[in-house]
Structures are given as structure tokens and as C-alpha cells.
User: What shape does this take?
Amino acid sequence: MTENDDKVSILMRSPVFRDLPKEALNAITRAVQDRVVPPHTIISREGDPGDSLYIIRSGRVRIFGRNEKGMEIDLSIQGPGDTFGEMALLAGEPMSADVEVLEETHLMILSKDKFDRILRDFPDISKVFVKEMRRWLLRDDERLEMQARKAYKASRRSWVDFFLVIVISIVLAAIFNTTNPNGIPLFPEFPDRSSIPVVSPSAAMEEIQHGETLILDAMPTNFYQQRHIGGAVNIPLGLFDMVYLMTFAEEDKEKKIVVYGATISKPYDLEVANKLLLRGYKNVRILEGGLAAWEGRGYPVEETAKQ
Assistant: This one.
């Protein structure tokens, strides 16, 4: 087996690359930089620039974070065929965790400029990354939920203490806003719901059946995975700009779009609808009553199988 064939076989272990055409895989193997890293080396720290995609050819790495007390929290152990750094690279954000080599590890590193060049040469790759982003988000949400449960069990702070902290924070914020002309809002400001038209579930269903309307689920991927309207496209608010550029920017600005996804604590539907309006879409509406109203009518709802 040649050096290039070995690299291609490693790429094909990853769900990110395994379905790519051979010419795309060869382009990636030509673009990567090889690096052998000794054990216990820190490859990157939380907050470092997310300017590379790392593919593990051999060895193992540990991805970990720290809690508010500075204690290390293991997030995952990655081995041959696994990748890391992809979310920071795609989102243009700093690394969100530390990465340490556990044993001598051979990495293939794809820098941002070469990654961008490959995306231009093989635009279908962007669709693969959009699909995988949903899996990464679900994985990260599950990790965060697990760590939150551990933190809750370990915490001995009473609800009285918690309440006092909230009250003191609000008082201090109010004092700051009173004394500072450039004060910050105590609560987030959302677009005015009355400024965006609504559409009833029955009217939306009729449009969908005639192929006239695109329906968007604006909630985080883990909510979408649990339950969503049949045929809805997931465009999470937190990843709106990235998903929009990769898959949505070419949509006809006159197309009818229905957005849903409000929760008790967050008007995801309102914010995504507002972003679409700001980008020039003229027929954006919010689904009246959201998912609950849709289900109440007996219209199709799907669950996405966990990967």
C-alpha cells in the first residue's frame, strides 16, 4: 500500500470523508501536512485560533475542558480516523477545549486556506459538513448535559444562595445602568413578533402539499432530533450564518418560507425569521402555534434516528 493509499484509507474511516469521491480524497491527502506528536503534548488550548482541521492517522488524543474550579473534565478520547478542530474551523471561532496527545500520534493537518480551496474545488463537500454538524452538535449537547448533571449533583449550594446571587446581580446591573449612559439591557431584546406575519397550520400544510413552501425548524439540533415537522429543514439559530452560506444562500428570495421553533425560554422562530427578512427574503412567516398546533391538527411529525 502506498503512502497516499494509507492516508485515503484513514480518511474513509471518518463519516466526514468516507462518502467523498476518490478525486476529493486524493486532493485532501495532497493538501494535509503530516506531523508526529510525542506523548503528553498539548496540541491546542481552549481559546487558541481554530484555523486547522486535524485528522488522526494513528495514536490517541484526549479532548478535555475545565470547570469553574479549574478541574479537568474529559470530553472524549479520539483515535485513528477521528477528527477534531472542525467546528472551530467552520464557525471561525477559537478552540472550545484543550487537546492532549496520550501516546505518540501521527496527525494529518489541513489548514484553513487549503480547506477553503478544497471546498471551492469540490463544493459538494460542504453538504457533507452541514450533515455532520448536526451530529457534532448533538454529541456536544449530550456531553454538556452529562457534565451539567454531574455539576448539579456535586453542588451543595442551596436555592436560597442561588436566589440571592440572582437578586444581587440584578441590583448591580440596575445600578450600573442607572449610572452609565451606555448601560446594558438586563434582558435580551428580540424582534417584534407582531412585525412578522403568521400562517395557520392548515394554510401551511396546503402550501406544502402544492410544493410552494419551504418549512424551517429553527431549534437546536438536539430538539430537532427528538421531534420535528415532517419534511422540515433544520437551520439552528446558533449556526444560522454558517448553514445559510453553505446551503441556503441560493434560494429564491421570493420563495414562501414558514419558520417554527419557539420554546418557553427562547423565540428561535422569531430570530431566524428576522435574519431571513434582513437577508432579503420577502415571504417569511411564522407558524401559528408552532409544533404543538401542527401536531394538534394531526399533521405529520417525524423523529430523526440518533446516529
